[in-house]
Design a protein that fits this description.
The complex is a heterotrimer of chains A (483), B (246) and C (381). With 483 residues, chain A is α/β, with parallel strands linked by helices. Chain A has one domain. Chain A is built from 13 helices and 25 strands. In chain A, strand 3 and strand 4 form a beta hairpin. Chain A is globular, with a radius of gyration of 22 Å. In chain A, 58% of the residues are buried. A six-stranded mixed β-sheet of chain B has the order 6-9-10-3-11-12, with helices on both faces. Chain B has a four-stranded antiparallel β-sheet with strand order 2-1-4-5. In chain B, a hairpin with a 2-residue loop joins strand 11 and strand 12. The mean pLDDT of chain B is 90. In chain B, helix 3 runs parallel beside helix 5. Chain B has a single domain, classed as Rossmann fold (3-Layer(aba) Sandwich). With 381 residues, chain C is of the alpha/beta class. Chain C is built from five helices and 19 strands. The two termini of chain C are 37 Å apart. The model of chain C has no long low-confidence stretch (mean pLDDT 91). At the B-C interface, helix 2, strand 6, strand 7 and helix 3 of B face helix 3 and helix 4 of C.
Amino acid sequence: MSNDYIKDKPIDVSTDTDRILLDGVERELYDFVDEEREEDFYRINEGLTEEIVRKISEEKHDPDWMLEFRLKSLKIYNELEMPDWGPPIDGLNMDNIATYVRSKSNMVNSWDEVPEDIKNAFDKLGIPQAERESLAGVGAQYDSELVYHNVRKDVEESGVVYTDMESALTGEYSEMVHEHFMKLVPPTDHKFAALHGAVWSGGSFVYVPPGVHLEIPLQSYFRLNARGAGQFEHTLIIVDEGADLHFIEGCSAPKYNTANLHAGCVELYIRKNARLRYSTIENWSKNMYNLNTKRAICEEGGIIEWVSGSFGSHESYLYPTSVLKGDRSHSEFTGVTFAGKGQNLDTGAKVIHIGKNTSSFIDTKSICKSGGISTYRSSVVITKSAEGAKASVNCGSLMLDNISRSDTIPAVDVRTDKADVGHEAKIGRISDEAVFYLMSRGISEAEARAMIVSGFANPVSKELPLEYAAEMNNLIKLEMEGG
Amino acid sequence: MADTLLQICGVSAAVEGEEILHDVSLNINKGETHVLMGPNGAGKSTLGNVLMGNPVYALTGGSILFDGEDISKESADKRACRGMFLSFQNPLEVPGLALDSFIRNALRQRTGKNVKFMQFNKDLMNTMKLLNMDPSYAERDLNVGFSGGEKKKSEILQLLMMNPRFAILDETDSGLDVDAVKTVSEGIREYQKREDGALLIITHNAKILESLHVDYTHVLVKGRIVKTGDASLVEEIGKNGFEQFL
Amino acid sequence: MEMTKRINHLPVLTWNKLKLNDAELLINTEFGKVNTFADAALPAGVTAEKNVSFDELVRHFDALAVSSPKEKIVAGKLPIYNEQRFATGMGKEIDDLIVEADCKTDIYTVDGTHTDPIVLRYDYKNGASGLSSTLIHAKAGSESTWVMYYTSEGKQTDNGLVGASTRVFLEEGAKVHLVKVQMLSEGYTFFDDIGVISGKASELSLAKLSLGAKRAYEGFNDYQIGDKSRLTVDYGTICRDGSFTDINYNDIFIGKKAEGVMRFFEPLYGNAEKTFRGTLDFRQNSKASVGDEQEDVLLFGEDVINKTIPLILCEEEDVEGRHAATIGRLSDEMLFYMQTRGLSEHEAKKLMVRASLNKVARLVPDEGIRHKIDEYLKDVI
């Protein structure tokens, strides 16, 4: 493995000693580094060239169309400009990012067969345990490829397909994949969508047949362990007519002092009267550039519910998009973002109303502290055809000190008079009265403040399954202490 | 029955998916005054809002007939034009819209006729006098900066000016001092004097009823009418509370 | 002259696709040598210095030690406002235009308390175009009321360009009530670029009715530098069929305990297109400041285009900021209330248009002008 990355200009991550001490104890849960033994991993050299793209394609045994698609995407990537409106991404140099790193062992469906060090990593994150207790299926990705994939028997028997993207590309559903892959998020959408199209690897494919209701969630967990690498997983979910699915995505990575990049892509197709809940607890380490694209399209009566917790990464651009194409389709976005020291998190949501009587709700909370920058950014577009559309946007921001920054940038574009849009945003601080009230009941000030912040984020945590809500509250506590 | 004005037939209603009213039936004839009492959270205001067609409350069962016609699916303005009226517990404020021009506009909508300015002004001033309202309130913006008592008077003023055939008074006495209760009660009595005017008075306080003629009293508990009686029931509740019905 | 000016910049950029980051103002006319028309009779204590060149105006800023605060560069937040010595809402390119068109500035200096409004009339005849530039310098403790009244005589189809640049500098404890009424013919293009610097415990109230013109560009920028300064904005317009309106209002909190309230009302008819940018910007140490912004839009046309982007920028913990927008319909509560009194949704909306514009019209202190507004509104609604 090349050691060139060490010479890279370090990016601005926390060097505060208190913080590191705290990190040493608490954040270890996510930030631990698993020393990768070089001989166990296959790593493509850093950089982004046609040669590298071809090599990834060859390594993955792509069908011919996919190689073509990758090369076309690379061309588009080179033509597109960097965005000029968000957090600065000049600290990110593709020449220093390895776009493909994978363990030499193959994907298996039993944790016992997962290589020891990787299994340990997931054990620490509690994935096998969660699978035993509360999940219908689990996919675990380590660096660029899935190392583990398993679905409960009864779920499989109901016709639900949950597999890694690589198998999906060549398996029974290859045509369905070809038909939908990057159709919702075309590589021309923006520069990092093009990058994703060129170098993507890993991720999951889910198909829920008509009328099937999954009572318990499926989960994919993404761990990016390699230093100076990128993760570009692709998630493609099709929920067929009248079906119902809850999908959970978790992500984390150890903390290095070189930039890592995550440019995943999530495409969700929700057919007539189907419903999908897509929950994410994102906790990338604070050297990560998280430039992720998520988009859902709803047919008639379809429902997409996004639940999103953003805690990690150095910088984020993340705006899950709902395209409400079918009449009476509906989207809900519930999100919380916590920006601490050294973080610049630009998050929000987009909704496009096309069908008649469509409705959307956005409810977000942003918290910032210790110099963190949190930006809520959204757009709600109601096209002329969307008669009877209703949209409501509600965003709250909490400033925990006066060295941080919190911006709210919500755009609304309405092109029919038969629409109804409400918007409200508030910014403020923790009220001293509230802190005093809790303290008068015997709670320490620090704890009182943490409780109030957790309460502020409650609209999000209450939408999560219990164990994830607990994880989120832990993350909030961690952020509150680490300042 | 020729005199029947409003028929509530087995009405159930829900707010945000939760059923509040269960199978409520009630007949109100022309000229009658009905009182609806009940503990907090019994669903009294819900019934008032459902009768008037507030879209927040979903009718989940039964029907509402006015003049023998099913109005269950009509919007509130249509019901108002039929002669229904709801006095709000918390009347809304409209900056920029003067009280007098609001009432004149509403009258014009309801009757479809132009309102004669001079006659209207005379009626308005007389009615305001009856309600002990300062005439300057006519030119003030609708309910803006009105005290709790003035807001309620403004509702009764609208009642008397619009002269509906059936009025629901939702907690019109709440938050009023003794004098204001008396004035409001006088306004209601004035309405009762008029021919055919029917009333449904929602309250959990017997005070306002002391000087009013009452034909029937209904007790609503947990979304059901558990007892119907005459005016004496008001007195009984005043003495013994609602406990006996729980 | 023929040129395009980039104006009304959003203080922080967002997705270019939304076309909200700025606006273009097309200038394709010659400006006559017109500044103020009617020379208002000035009360004692108010003095005027006329025909001041832009260079002299800047020297005037120097003498008064007036300047917009230096902007801190925030990573990823570029550009933050345009570079102007005394910032305005539309931005530097309007200052450039004033220089290019050799438009002179009238400087009014106010001392003492003046209850009678000072009315400045700008009446353009037969499609004439004109630019005006004004600085109101309110001295410490002074109080004054200004009405700037823009009208045109001639055909409704006259299509001139009328532009105004208005700066207000409030010293400690000064109060200025600025009222602007625009009732130009329906063919006109109108722009109104306002810049304010608010000193300690000063108060600025702006009441604005922009009723005429086909294309209207509105910019406003207030640096609330002094502690305990106050700003109130009441803005009403009618975006009629075929019209285009572009609004950019910024309230920047710098002093402590500053207060800002901005209320906007915009009904849209036919295929009117309107963009609204409204920003509350809380700078570091603007402790205990409170900002509130409300925009209400009623839509009355199948082909309307309504864009709204209300920003809150914040780098201070101890502040309260809120913005809210309602677009399309009345609130369910209000609609139900109106309906119980027999008004249909359409009637209720119409009534609200009158009510909301009345609210602003009442703030006009000149009875004659108020009467004209009443007549105008009766005609239009």
